[in-house]
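ARCHIVE CARD
CATEGORY: sequence design from structure
SOURCE FIELD: tokenized fold
FIELD CONTENT:
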């Protein structure tokens, strides 16, 4: 019996509950191996499968409820904090937003199966104004699917897991060392990627006051609103004269962008990552007069500059 299995048999379901709770809070503790082990032990009669499913789903709901209300009342700050510690600051929020835009509220059901989204999804749902009852229902179904899938995998593949456990017991130290080296290499590679991206994004930017001055003159700048649909629906206004585009539309519509006018991109995400990466992408495609807005839409609103009802570029 593996160390994980022995620990689960000795301490039971409360340990499993705690592991899943810590993972959902955001601690770097993978719950999947524990859920697989619990499923295998349940098949052998050492654990209660239904009890394990209900307790782990409850752990998910408790953590996600806390994140939901933190996002609801402290949305921008908490998303900025989450991204600050993320190895992929652009995708930590953007991938979640994409799930919401493509699948709507159904995205909550699948978020736990996508690496990196489990912690980000609840606060983003709170920011998007989804009702708590709806969120609780969808998140509960997602938690049951997530925990149930791993528990059942452990149940049905208990023999294979036992063989893997036996091999690990024989050469566990070597495997552990190799695993730690691989994890360290992965984190180092991601950190290097992040630093390279941040170096690339050190481009000329425009402040809200400079943009306000441009709007008072001629020709008017071409302003692209890159906020997510969830953010737009929550606050359906935009900088006066701007057009809203989804990220996947930018490349498709780039031929419509003027090359003889200033192009300003803005978002409402931590560190203006979305608008900066979009501006960099367009600059590489030959657009020279393009700048992201410092502080994004939040800075514009804070300065009390004019806004209007949002509109999308006609398809």
């Amino acid at each position: 019996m593996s160390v994980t299995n022995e620990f689960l048999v000795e301490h039971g379901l409360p340990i499993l509950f705690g592991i899943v709770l810590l993972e959902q809070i955001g601690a770097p503790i993978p719950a999947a191996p524990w859920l697989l082990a619990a499923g295998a032990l349940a098949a052998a009669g050492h654990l209660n499968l239904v009890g394990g499913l209900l307790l782990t789903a409850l752990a998910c709901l408790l953590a996600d409820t806390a994140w939901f209300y933190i996002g609801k009342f402290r949305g921008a700050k908490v998303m900025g904090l989450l991204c600050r510690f993320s190895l992929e600051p652009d995708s930590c929020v953007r991938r979640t937003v994409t799930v919401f835009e493509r699948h709507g509220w159904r995205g909550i059901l699948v978020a736990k199966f996508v690496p990196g989204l489990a912690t980000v999804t609840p606060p983003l749902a709170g920011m998007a104004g989804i009702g708590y009852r709806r969120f609780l229902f969808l998140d509960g179904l997602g938690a049951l699917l997530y925990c149930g899938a791993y528990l059942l995998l452990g149940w049905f593949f208990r023999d294979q897991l036992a063989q893997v456990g036996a091999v690990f017991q024989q050469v566990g130290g070597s495997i552990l060392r190799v695993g730690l080296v691989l994890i360290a290499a992965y984190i180092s590679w991601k950190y290097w990627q992040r630093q390279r991206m941040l170096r690339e994004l050190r481009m000329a930017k425009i402040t809200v006051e400079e943009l306000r001055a441009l709007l008072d003159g001629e020709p008017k700048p071409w302003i692209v609103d890159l906020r997510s649909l969830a953010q737009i629906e929550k606050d359906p206004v935009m900088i006066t004269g701007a057009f809203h585009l989804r990220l996947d539309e930018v490349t498709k519509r780039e031929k419509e962008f003027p090359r003889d006018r200033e192009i300003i991109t803005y978002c409402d995400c931590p560190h203006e990552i979305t608008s900066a990466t979009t501006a960099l992408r367009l600059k590489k495609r030959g657009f020279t007069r393009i700048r992201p807005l410092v502080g994004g839409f939040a800075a514009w609103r804070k300065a009390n500059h004019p806004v209007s009802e949002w509109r999308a570029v006609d398809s």
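CARD ANNOTATION: The CA atoms of residues 208 and 299 lie 7 Å apart. DSSP finds 14 helices and six strands in the chain.
SHELF: design records, drawer C
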